[in-house]
Specification:
Blueprint (H helix, E strand, L loop, with lengths): L11 H12 L7 E10 L19 E13 L13 H7 E3 L5 E3 L27
Antiparallel strand pairs: 1-2, 3-4
């Protein structure tokens, strides 16, 4: 940023360099620049289709509020994407009938309810019939 903390008088190169410095990125890092906020037509249209409403296959259109994304691939932490070990998998999950894995958890012991009169003695109940 400039000395006033603003970006108005900075060139794009100066602004990007200042942001890289602020983030601790270094020259030589693997940088990818992408555009977010777009859509690509994935449907083959008929020849007589109106291109305004039915864009041709592969047509890319960007929203008015599209963003430029700068990603530092060198700083990306992929160590958290390790698969579970088999012993952990079998200890913490069980397999359902369809092959789906479900999280295993201990069920707490159910306490016996004490709020019901099991004797069936209705004389002990109070009535307010007037």
């Amino acid at each position: 940023m400039n000395k006033d903390g603003g970006t108005n008088s900075m060139t794009i190169d100066d602004l990007v360099k200042a942001l890289f410095d602020e983030l601790g990125w270094e020259e030589g890092d693997d940088i990818a620049i992408k555009i977010a906020g777009g859509r690509t037509s994935g449907i083959h249209q008929t020849d007589d289709a109106n291109p305004k409403w039915a864009p041709p296959f592969g047509d890319v259109r960007y929203n008015r509020d599209a963003q430029i994304v700068i990603e530092n691939l060198s700083r990306r932490d992929q160590s958290k994407s390790q698969p579970l070990q088999q012993d952990v998998l079998h200890r913490e999950f069980h397999e359902g009938d369809s092959g789906q894995l479900y999280k295993t958890r201990e069920l707490e012991e159910l306490r016996e309810s004490t709020g019901v009169d099991a004797t069936g003695d209705c004389d002990s109940l109070e009535t307010n019939n007037g």
